[in-house]
Write a structure and sequence with these properties.
four-stranded mixed beta sheet, 2 domains, 4 strands, Glutaredoxin, alpha+beta, 4 helices, 138 residues, elongated
């Protein structure tokens, strides 16, 4: 005896699989864009913010979340980079700039260090610091 519902079950399974795939694709597209870690971009003619990141520190996560809140509004005018202190390049950058872990560093287009911010800043304070340091219109 053959089961007549086999075709229906197969269609339902395929439809469910397609729906799940589409939803996962949408979810991935909604995630914040990744951050570039090419620190050679500092001083290459663009205003730059570098997060000195220590993945084990809550302060770094707080600063990363803060950057995610403002980054889209500054795209095209400011590059956002990460110096991961768990990498040789990130640690060397942190040390060469005489910085602590879990800080935001604002660099002018020529690579001049304009400001260093820590995790005591909020979104409004970060926006003000960016606008002032980079002389951007609000």
């Amino acid at each position: 005896m053959q089961d007549k519902q086999t075709g229906s079950a197969l269609s339902s399974s395929l439809l469910t699989l397609v729906a799940i795939t589409v939803l996962l694709g949408i979810a991935v597209m909604m995630l914040p864009k990744g951050y570039d870690d090419d620190l050679s971009k500092v001083g290459q003619g663009v205003n730059t913010v570098v997060l000195i990141q220590n993945k084990g520190a809550q302060q770094s996560m707080d600063l990363l979340n803060l950057l995610n809140q403002v980054r889209d509004d500054y795209q095209g005018r400011v590059d956002f980079l990460i110096a991961d202190v768990d990498t040789e390049e990130g640690l060397a950058f942190k040390n060469s700039q005489r910085l602590d872990s879990s800080e935001l560093v604002l660099f002018g287009p020529d690579g001049t260090q304009l400001n260093v911010l820590n995790n005591s800043i909020d979104e409004a304070g970060l926006r003000k610091a960016l606008d002032n340091a980079f002389r951007l219109p609000p």
